[in-house]
Write a structure and sequence with these properties.
Elements: H1 3-8, E1 10-11, E2 14-15, H2 16-50, H3 55-64, H4 68-80, H5 87-124, H6 129-157, H7 162-179, H8 181-196, E3 204-207, E4 210-217, E5 221-226, E6 231-235, H9 236-241, E7 244-246, E8 253-261, H10 267-282, E9 287-297, E10 302-310, H11 315-336, E11 345-350, E12 357-362
Antiparallel strand pairs: 1-2, 3-4, 3-7, 4-5, 5-6, 8-10, 9-10, 11-12
Helix pairs in contact: 2-3, 2-4, 4-5, 5-6, 6-8, 10-11
């Protein structure tokens, strides 16, 4: 038997020569794809190390995740065109190719999610460690969604009616959501905190009636160390519903105080008081004086109101400055002969046969 006769001989509906050509195409395309992938990966490794852009890093990661099984199926699909294949078998090959492509797509998607998570966690590891945990959960949820969608597409490619399955999953999802709606609400609130960042670990905040420092931001609760020492645990959903004051970004403190003087204080002395207050405030750096005025005349005292800013958010520094201002004001006012108002009270006594009214006043 000659070689031509051997190649022309039928085997499974195709000549041996056709099978030989298909095998050559299979091996040639497969090894060409493997070689091309390796070559591009090496070049991208050098360029990615020299640049700071993310594009080449993402492409490099995708190429590294490209499996040889995917390349083999591509080569098999190309080789199949060299053969006469019945429609049923060709349909099976196409479905197999779709399945492998979906698996490869899942690998690429998971890689993209992992790459994004790595970049974000590296950027936030030193400053916002709480959001790293939450972002890990986000990555898991994204992977679950990705694999679920690809699984449904794979079933659909094999002729399975996924409409009923999606409906069933929707009903089950609603039932589960109703059962754990509080937990889901806290988890979603945790994601909101991680992405919007109204506060981070270490921030001093005030929530409703308590004040403290954020120690931990979890998936369900946030733990706050109060200024009195105890730990306060608040659900994330309830925390976001409350009004939060965050003092971490504060750069200065506004201070307002009022001095009260007796009603009999002379006008000349009252005109002197705002000047004394201004001089006293400006002598205590770091501050910025705003105003000092004889602001009110009440039925009990004369009021002088002053406003200044401490150019630092430190609370202890503010209290030290206020203490020095108070002591200096006492000294300056005493030297000027100006007295501060003393709280008084009046007692009305009715007595005597003639109904005489006697009044006594005292401190």
């Amino acid at each position: 038997m000659t070689l031509r006769q051997l190649l022309a001989r039928e085997f499974l509906g195709n000549p041996v020569g056709g099978w030989a050509l298909a095998a050559a195409l299979l091996l040639g395309v497969f090894f060409a794809l493997v070689f091309a992938r390796r070559l591009v990966v090496r070049r991208l490794e050098r360029s990615a190390a020299a640049t700071e852009t993310m594009v080449d890093d993402v492409v490099l990661d995708a190429l590294r995740r490209t499996r040889k099984s995917f390349l083999f199926v591509l080569a098999l699909a190309a080789a199949s065109f060299a053969l006469e294949i019945p429609p049923a078998q060709r349909t099976l090959i196409e479905k197999l190719a779709k399945l492998v492509f979906l698996l490869q797509l899942a690998s690429w998607g998971s890689g993209a999610i992992a790459f994004w998570l790595l970049r974000v966690t590296r950027a936030r590891a030193g400053t916002d460690r709480a959001s790293v945990t939450t972002l890990n959960v986000v990555a898991v949820i994204l992977r679950i969604v990705l694999w679920t969608l690809l699984f449904l597409l794979a079933l659909q490619s094999f002729g399975v009616d996924v409409t009923a399955l999606i409906t069933g999953l929707g009903i089950a999802g609603v039932a589960v959501a109703l059962a754990v709606q509080n937990v889901l609400g806290d988890v979603l609130a945790s994601l909101s905190i991680a992405l919007d960042k109204p506060f981070v670990i270490g921030d001093a905040i005030t929530v409703d009636t308590f004040q403290g420092t954020v120690e931990h931001i979890g998936l369900k609760t946030t733990r706050i160390r109060s200024i009195t020492g105890e730990q306060i645990v608040v659900s994330n959903a309830e925390l976001l519903k409350a009004r939060i004051r965050n003092y971490q970004g504060q750069t200065e403190r506004r201070v307002l105080f009022t001095l009260l003087f007796p009603l009999e204080t002379p006008p000349q002395s009252m005109a002197r008081v705002p000047e004394i207050v201004k001089e006293t405030i400006l002598a205590n750096a770091p501050v910025r004086f705003d105003r000092a005025h004889f602001s009110a005349i009440t039925d009990q005292a004369l009021a002088v109101e002053a406003v200044y800013f401490v150019l630092d958010a430190n609370y202890v520094l503010y209290m030290d400055i206020q203490q020095r201002i108070n002591l200096t004001l006492l000294e300056r006012l005493a030297a000027e002969g100006i007295r501060l108002a003393v709280p008084t009270r009046s007692v009305v006594v009715k007595g005597g046969a003639d109904g005489e009214v006697q009044a006594a006043a005292g401190a």
